[in-house]
């Protein structure tokens, strides 16, 4: 199921890209901020067909992203970081080993002589 959702995700990304690129620009670059001769909504209303289609595709994209994340989390119980192996191919211990008390310890440093 996750692979199907991933394929749908890729198709939706391509479709959104195409629908955005097909839309006509409603402003002339930064001219929209300094006052342009175009009205805010234009003569055809606030949203055209391509804008509605882009919104719908984006909404489906977001829902598919959430579903894909949920399905992946449900299937996978481990993290990618759990599979990392160091270059020396030794397994890193999960808990540090307790120090053995049989080993001798280094003597303490002598104290500084008292000032006379």
Q: Beta-strand percentage?
A: under 5%
In this structure, how is the largest beta sheet organized? none
Count of individual helical segments? 3
The topology string of helices and strands comes to HHH
The level of helicity is 40-55%
Quick check: average pLDDT? 75
Which stretches are low in confidence, meaning pLDDT under 50 for 5 or more residues running? 34-38
What structural class is derived from the secondary structure elements? mainly alpha
Task: Describe the overall structure.
This protein is mostly helical. It is elongated and about 90 Å long. The protein has 3 helices and no strands. The longest helix is centred in the middle third of the chain and has 27 residues. The chain has a domain of 54 residues. Helix 1 packs antiparallel against helix 3. 45% of the residues lie in helices and 0% in strands.
């Amino acid at each position: 199921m996750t692979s199907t959702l991933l394929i749908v995700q890729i198709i939706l990304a391509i479709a959104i890209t195409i629908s955005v690129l097909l839309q006509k620009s409603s402003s002339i670059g930064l001219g929209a901020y300094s006052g342009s001769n175009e009205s805010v909504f234009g003569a055809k209303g606030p949203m055209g067909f391509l804008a509605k289609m882009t919104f719908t595709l984006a909404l489906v994209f977001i829902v598919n992203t959430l579903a894909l994340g949920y399905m992946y989390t449900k299937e996978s119980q481990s993290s990618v970081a759990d599979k990392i192996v160091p270059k020396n191919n030794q397994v890193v211990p999960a808990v540090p080993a307790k120090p053995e008390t049989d080993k001798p310890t280094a003597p303490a440093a002598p104290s500084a002589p008292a000032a006379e």
